[in-house]
User: What shape does this take?
Amino acid sequence: MAVQKSQPAPGKPAPDSTRRSEKSRRAIYDAALALVVEVGYPKTTIEGIAARAGVGKQTIYRWWSSKADVLMEAFLDLAEQSTEEAGAVPYTFPDTGDLAADLKAVLRATVDELRDPRFEAPSRALAAEGVVNEQLGRELVAKLMQPSLDLYIGRLRAAQDAGQVRPEIDPRIALEFFISPLAQRWLQHTGPISHEYTDTLVDYALHGLAPR
Amino acid sequence: MAVQKSQPAPGKPAPDSTRRSEKSRRAIYDAALALVVEVGYPKTTIEGIAARAGVGKQTIYRWWSSKADVLMEAFLDLAEQSTEEAGAVPYTFPDTGDLAADLKAVLRATVDELRDPRFEAPSRALAAEGVVNEQLGRELVAKLMQPSLDLYIGRLRAAQDAGQVRPEIDPRIALEFFISPLAQRWLQHTGPISHEYTDTLVDYALHGLAPR
Amino acid sequence: MAVQKSQPAPGKPAPDSTRRSEKSRRAIYDAALALVVEVGYPKTTIEGIAARAGVGKQTIYRWWSSKADVLMEAFLDLAEQSTEEAGAVPYTFPDTGDLAADLKAVLRATVDELRDPRFEAPSRALAAEGVVNEQLGRELVAKLMQPSLDLYIGRLRAAQDAGQVRPEIDPRIALEFFISPLAQRWLQHTGPISHEYTDTLVDYALHGLAPR
Amino acid sequence: MAVQKSQPAPGKPAPDSTRRSEKSRRAIYDAALALVVEVGYPKTTIEGIAARAGVGKQTIYRWWSSKADVLMEAFLDLAEQSTEEAGAVPYTFPDTGDLAADLKAVLRATVDELRDPRFEAPSRALAAEGVVNEQLGRELVAKLMQPSLDLYIGRLRAAQDAGQVRPEIDPRIALEFFISPLAQRWLQHTGPISHEYTDTLVDYALHGLAPR
DNA sequence: GCCTAACCGAGACGGTACGTCGAGTCTTAAT
DNA sequence: ATTAAGACTCGACGTACCGTCTCGGTTAGGC
Assistant: This one.
């Protein structure tokens, strides 16, 4: 499960990645994440990252095309490490047979993650960049979000097979009832996020707003 | 409803707003919006706005505290104008008695607005800024989104009174089923937005995912 | 006798010289000369000058087109100041009636000046630059050397009128017998320079190498 | 006469010159001279020379200590080749018994050489470097100029023996009347150089400026 | 109808960061 | 062991904007 390297500015003679310094790469990831946490994304500069990592600026420009690009890889790397560290099987979704309970459990974990300060600053920064820069946005979605979304889809399909979700429902849309309200509250500061809140989302979504 | 001017950096002798040049203000709004559309938010600079507006830099710094601040006011102004232009009663929500139909109608209009290129660039820029800058984010929510959200709340309460929505539902959460998925698809490029899509959202949300 | 300002890079909107900061100009001159003396010309950088002068780099680039250009003006300014300081009538050549004595006196003064450490580093640097960069070289000749050369020509013509120099001699060539050997020894380190040496030059040049 | 290799940075384990690649050396000389002619000395870089010569940078740093050092050897090599090529006995000075004629002939040849574009760029570059870098300057004088100067001294001494030059004249100073004015005009662009000019120098110098 | 304060266009200023280039060092593979 | 190749750290380049600070020149009210 290797991290895909992003392309540096095209037209340049591609650097030889076999000779790349692993030490520098790690130092750059660490410096970038630390700076984003400490001083915020806009005040995080390529020069600052280079200085903190004890690395020449050119070494950053050689392998990445922008600050956002560095941060994205750093964040992907962080996510990978955290997953490994947690010892968890990385990409699974609980299936106890109780759809509501499973969704609530996963969403509670997501809430906790969104509040982890190690994740908050860089993921906000990346999300903001993705809003404005479509190319980066799509990369983010593909690399960071899609794997999780696929798990939701799988779980919802299983629920359909078990007769707990109506068969005509499109799981790719249904999952947004759980993900999107949480995402918007977090991204746009439109409201607080909590375990109770996500529990409520699950209940509302499964049973609908209208009386039965 | 006059646009509230934002405070310039505190500690300064407050400028006398009665002597402010209306012509400059308009020129600055126009230049800011045009530049964001033409070159994108990150490449829009205060110097660029000043030059294009034929205005001194100080005139911008005197009345606004940041690029985002200028753009926010410019955008609010644009939104106001558009509303007036449309001749519409600005802040109402249809109530035909058919909740689903009313929601679908409003969401279709929202989809159309999100696709209007005049709106897209600046509102993306502001949204992105709001993700990262909490203070600005809250201002955006309060000034740009809250009025609309309140209309949703009002309509949902009416539906509750009419027995079309279960009484224990919190309308402030319920409205997110309509707003948030659309917002996320648009903000994060996670999927296409269309009238069919929002129609589906309304149906799913009202009747729930589970079989009845 | 104003210092001619050199042209910044053409094609740029010419800066308004009436608003130029005299303080910055002085500080830049001082820093440039000091650095050339202290660390040598090649290690003198625009950044270094700016930092030492407490000035933004742009302020240098706004008014000068290169390091050599800065240094040339700084040196011209220094020369001017020194002349004023010395209280001397700036552009005269002694005429006691004794050509040999007058030439020897002036050349002895020149030798002293060439050895003054305040002058040595910058003038070497400029001379070197002028060797390789013809445009700058011609400017140097015109602004720094020509006035002195003209004085030699004047004195030699007077000597011709007085019958002390053959009338068919071209003073513009003759003066090189006094100037050029000294210049070459100094520039190219081909030999030591001293009062005795220049005295000898005068004697040899006036009376020739061949027996009479 | 083998070219003495200059010392690389001291303190390093001296490379084994018996295993040196002659092909690389030649390629480096050619590349260095070509680049100086084509793009000028300041824009000639070690990287550029290495790339053009198809050589690793280290190969240059191993054997030379600086750009000027490379160029000096390259130029010495060029001078040697040219001399051989010309088939001439390398280090002689004509002695027809007519001092004036001999000097004029040699100076005319010098003028022609100074105008040869193959020589001009590199020798200007070296001269400029020598003005500012005393160590290199002295090396240049010793290796490039001294042999010629010695020939002048020899010829002048012969002339003294023949009674054509006054015995009390120091030939080491006298020769500067022929060399230095030409050198200065060429180096500092203070005037045009031509056969007529050098002829005039010889006449003026031999017979003096004063009436006889 | 004048005075005088504030605003205005303009843009120079001290700075920070940009993205690029080259210096000189170090590592790898191949000859 | 030298070589071609090129990644590395470092420092300077010249540019773009930042936010502050003068400059005249309008442009109001308050007298």
Q: What stands out?
A: Chain C has a mean pLDDT of 90. The first helix of chain C runs from residue 22 to 39. Residues 18-19, 45-48, 57-58, 61 of chain C lie near DNA strand F (CB under 10 Å from a C1').
